[in-house]
Amino acid sequence: MRFFHTSDWHLGRMLYGRSLLSDQQYFLEEAFLPAVEKEKPAFLLLCGDVYDRQVAPPEAIALFDRALSRLLELGVKVLVISGNHDGAQRMALLKGVLRKSGAYFATALEDFLQPVLLEEDGLRVQVFMLPFFDAPTARDFLSDPSLRGESACMERLLELSYPLFEPGALHVLMGHCFCAGATVSDSESGAFVGGSGQIPAELFERFDYVALGHLHGPQRAGKTARYSGTPLKYSIDEATQKKGFLVLDWDGASLSAEHREVVPKRDVKKLEGSFEELLAAGEASPCEDYVELHLTDKSPVLLASERLRPFYPNLLAVQNQWALQGAAGKRARDLQGADEGAVFAAFFQEVSGAPPEDGDIALFQEILKEVQL
């Protein structure tokens, strides 16, 4: 019994102000859907952040609608949970009707306790769909104000699922969260990564497989959980990551997982070299990929972006290492040996253009003291 695990499509995403919708359409229509048609999975797990914004642009909604319609035409069951970027209430629209067509949406914690049982050739897979949640939402659902942090809430929620386990089935959990110890990327929202939101992977070990979304790099999390990662690169620090989706096979005795890499319409790269080297390379072979160029020149280069852009039409940024090192080096020398208050004052001056007032420094010292406790 074969099924796919994917997540974090972030339809409607922007990269340095550039829309990635055509790249996302290419992924879906030229790579992902053809793979579904060829390999005929029984079902698909889409683990949150279908959209990049809670109020998704119409073009992104239309793209998802076409992809979902095609998946259902191919006879594939589609299981979707809402992520922190999705508008859960909007995504819940018509989910009762869609369920009858083979598309299952989980957008509220109540949906978690209505697992989906899938059967094929005598094999059974029971899927528990847990959408993204925060601690206040979980406390209200569980009627337990004493719970603190997502970890305690997650543990209590999972305890409710164990009595529902179907004997003899493969027990799968879908989630959208940050497992402690996992690797993060620059493209993830800092508001939902780290701190009390971290979930110990050990909590998931009663499930045979845990399909996770939220973190953008494909990776394992503990013994049974995996992140599929994003299908495309959404920040420069992801340039070396292998993007794609997971293909899983269950034969009734063992479960295997393979990461299937996808070749994008345009890659995301960080290129380094002198201005003349990068210019010559671009003239010889213009690059259509999204690129951030890092100049190694030891002196300033005038109008570097304007002169390079004809050969790098999807140029995202040009970094002049000479200028950055010079500025950073001067700041470091000026602040060498200074205390935290002096460093804060220098930073405040640089950002705002004016020195901090006494109240600003007092507030900084108060926060610093709390952090150091």
Query: Main beta sheet: strand number and arrangement?
Result: 6 strands, mixed
Instruction: Return the average pLDDT rounded to an integer.
Output: 90
CA-CA gap between termini = 53 Å
Residue stretches low in confidence (pLDDT < 50, at least 5 long) are 191-196
Return the CATH architecture of the largest domain.
4-Layer Sandwich
- Rg measurement, Å: 24 Å
User: CATH H level of the largest domain: which superfamily?
Assistant: Metallo-dependent phosphatases
Give the overall shape: globular
Q: How many H/I helices?
A: 12
Determine the CATH topology of the largest domain: Purple Acid Phosphatase, chain A, domain 2
Q: State the domain count.
A: 2
Structural class: alpha/beta
Strand content range: 15-25%
Query: Helicity, in percent?
Result: 25-40%
Your description of this structure?
With 373 residues, the chain is of the alpha/beta class. The chain folds into two domains: 2-261, Metallo-dependent phosphatases (Purple Acid Phosphatase, chain A, domain 2), CATH 3.60.21.10; 268-372, no CATH class. It is 34% helix and 24% strand. The strands form five sheets. A six-stranded mixed beta sheet has the order 6-5-4-1-15-16. A six-stranded mixed beta sheet has the order 7-8-9-12-14-13, with no helix packed on it. β18 (290-295), α9 (304-308) and β19 form a beta-alpha-beta unit. α1 (21-39) runs parallel beside α2 (58-73) and α6 (135-142) crosses α7 (149-161). The radius of gyration is 24 Å and the shape is globular. The model is unreliable at 191-196 (pLDDT under 50).
